[in-house]
Design goal:
Helix content is 82%, strand content 0%. By secondary structure, the protein is mainly α.
């Protein structure tokens, strides 16, 4: 495989990795919506009731804790990780750190091999970011799953009083 073919291969790889990151962001948005809705329902039911029994307080706490923990993990998954290479013509942070003329000069003078190196670095960095995002999302989902049963029981019990 010659350098131009490798460049095309790495451009396609970077594109796929960016789509993977977008999929993670979509998952985050969906889970944030579900978590906040469940917390709002819980808060609405708890504030209109007098909860005195210790087991009920424990159930409410379990549900809320799982949902809040899930929200924390989701926010950690979406925290921007934008450390930038010094001379990339691919990464937005490095592009915006220089003037338009400097960027244009870099684009005009970059060799195929330098462009390939830039693409490889960006693919690796994007893959690392995606991996971290999905790890936090997985933790968020586990916390959310652990809150479902206590939440359902709490909603049922408080809405039938």
């Amino acid at each position: 495989m010659d350098t131009p073919e490798r460049n095309r291969f790495m451009e396609l790889s970077l594109f796929r990795l960016i789509i993977t990151n977008n999929a993670a962001d979509t998952k985050v948005a969906t889970l944030i919506g579900m978590n906040t809705t469940m917390l709002a329902v819980l808060a609405a039911l708890v504030t209109r009731q007098e909860v005195v029994q210790a087991w009920m307080v424990g159930l409410i706490t379990l549900a809320a804790l799982g949902l809040l923990l899930s929200l924390l993990f989701l926010s950690l998954s979406s925290f921007p990780r934008t450390s930038r290479p010094a001379r990339s013509i691919v990464f937005f942070g490095a592009i915006s750190a220089v003037t338009g003329n400097v960027f244009a000069d870099r684009v005009r003078t970059i060799s195929d091999a330098e462009y390939l190196d830039d693409l490889v670095e960006q693919c690796y960095r994007t893959a690392t970011i995606a991996s971290r995002k999905f790890r936090w999302i997985q933790r968020a989902q586990m916390a959310w799953y652990s809150s479902i049963l206590p939440w359902l029981l709490t909603v049922y019990l408080l809405s039938h009083k």
